[in-house]
């Protein structure tokens, strides 16, 4: 069992952390809908604590940055990945992003060139620069079988991964809940 930063706080001071769960993806690109569909399932079925907000951000990362101004302790991003694993494999881990202020000037200028089409990684870099980056950022990713082509509907491997991912999130919440 992992130990999280809030486990180190005395029981007298403990409050359930303020958590944002953000489903990333595009429902018109097959498996890329995974994050959005998992967020919908969590909204509909989970009964999560009041300090948890679940939202679909689609592919508009700037919406994520705007939401982070509400100052969350933890962000959980839900998305597909292509990390070379078997389609449907679930990864759940902490991530860290670069600080845009640390980039060389040329990269910084390229980063700032067009903020309308910001992806979630760039959104997190911007959140860090704006001092709204949560204390902990977790990523729940599902290995994709197909997300490059236009099409509606998940592949069977990713469809079967939705309940597995849902259970991982619920188990994680149970591990941090206050008795």
What is the overall number of helices?
Answer: 5
Overall CATH architecture: 3-Layer(aba) Sandwich
Give the radius of gyration: 17 Å
- The helicity comes to 25-40%
By secondary-structure content and strand pairing, the structural class works out as alpha/beta
Strand order of the largest sheet: 2-1-3-5-4
Within the CATH hierarchy, at the fold level, what is the topology? Rossmann fold
CATH top level is Alpha Beta
SS elements, strand count: 5
Sheet with the most strands? Answer: 5 strands, mixed
The percentage of residues in β strands lies in 15-25%
CATH superfamily: HybD-like
Extract low-pLDDT stretches. 1-13
Mean pLDDT: 81
Give the overall shape.
globular
Distance between the termini: 17 Å
- Number of individual domains: 1
Task: Write the element-wise H/E pattern from the N-terminal end onward.
Answer: EHEHEEHHEH
Key features?
179 residues, alpha/beta, Rossmann fold, 5-stranded mixed sheet, 19% strand, disordered N terminus
Give the helices and strands, then pairings.
Blueprint: E1 19-24, H1 34-45, E2 52-58, H2 61-68, E3 74-81, E4 90-94, H3 105-112, H4 120-129, E5 136-143, H5 156-176
Parallel strand pairs: 1-2, 1-3, 3-5
Antiparallel strand pairs: 4-5
Task: Offer a concise description of the structure.
With 179 residues, the protein is α/β, with parallel strands linked by helices. 33% of the residues lie in helices and 19% in strands.
Task: Provide a descriptive summary of the structure in words.
The protein has a single domain, classed as Rossmann fold (3-Layer(aba) Sandwich). With 179 residues, it is an alpha/beta fold. The chain is 33% helix and 19% strand. Mean pLDDT is 81; it is low at 1-13. Strands 2-1-3-5-4 form a five-stranded mixed β-sheet, with helices on both faces. It is built from five helices and five strands, in the order βαβαββααβα.
């Amino acid at each position: 069992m992992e130990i999280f930063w809030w486990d180190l706080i005395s029981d007298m001071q403990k409050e359930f952390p303020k958590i944002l769960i953000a489903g990333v993806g595009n429902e018109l690109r097959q498996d890329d809908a995974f994050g959005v569909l998992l967020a919908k399932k969590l909204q509909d079925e989970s009964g999560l604590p009041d300090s948890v907000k679940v939202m679909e951000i689609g592919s508009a990362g700037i919406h994520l940055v705007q939401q982070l101004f509400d100052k969350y302790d933890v962000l959980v991003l839900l998305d597909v990945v292509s990390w070379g694993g078997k389609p449907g494999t679930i990864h759940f881990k902490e991530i860290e992003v670069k600080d845009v202020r640390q980039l060389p000037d040329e990269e910084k200028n390229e980063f700032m060139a067009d903020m309308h089409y910001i992806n979630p990684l760039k959104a997190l870099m911007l959140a860090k620069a704006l001092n709204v980056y949560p204390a902990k950022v977790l990523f729940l990713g599902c290995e994709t079988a197909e997300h490059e082509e236009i099409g509606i509907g998940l592949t069977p491997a990713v469809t079967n991964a939705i309940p597995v991912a849902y259970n991982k999130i619920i188990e994680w919440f149970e591990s941090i809940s206050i008795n």
